[in-house]
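User: Predict structure, ligand zinc ion.
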Amino acid sequence: MSNLFISTSSAPNFILKNNSASSFQKGIVKTRITTFDSPLEECPNPKTQSSVNPLTGEIIYQIRYRWEESLNDFVPVRCGNNSCRPCAHLNAKRIAGAIYVSQPSHTFTLTLVPDNSKAIGKQVQKIFEHARKEIPTLAYVWSAESNPGNTGAHVHGYVHAEKNYFSSIGTTLTNSISKVTLGNRSEVKPIPQDAGISYFDYPMKSVLDPDVFEAYLDLNSSQNRKMLIHSSQKPFWRDGVDGPTYKKRKKLEVIAKRKRQLNYRTR
Ligand SMILES: [Zn+2]
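Assistant: Predicted complex:
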């Protein structure tokens, strides 16, 4: 993952204050290239449409195009699949937009999680069931990453805690994590008030790195469904901190794009 990070003392530090990666290397000012800094690569398998050649009767497949307002140009219609890294990059930006609009209050990191998404999901669910005995409203998103050097996996996530639980969520969640996982290390931190949209792509940063992307996708997916992020049953997705909640993330992505005028410069 080293190629995703720049180490420089003059780098902007808006991501750093609560960047869980930085806490493992105290004293080094680090920032990273986000999915919003990196140009989107073209989809290698754009959608096609078929037509019949009236002269020969042959079926012709042609790439489908659509008008992209921000580029003032026609562009090929992407396949949009999470298994396609350039499209996963765009999907990660949209997801980051949906998280940003949902305004979670805290980030959390779990270490030493199981090696597949089903088992990890069960563990995360158990942790939050335990924590909800004290803070009933917790809703969360997470994704898992392999540790560098094949030493297992860890989870990054965001959680909503209401204002009156701000001071207790760290202790509550840390307690629940150590109870459910028998002592794993974890971190719970408030999200900086000035966190911008690019802060929220952090759990999905593997979409930028061809060397780790497949492993990331495998770790987060089931056999039938390629996933970049997972959300709790209790709706995490919402339009603003006190706004209406949505079961489906896609719905919020559309609302976020329209209402907040988020532009991902899709190509
Ligand atoms: Zn694609």
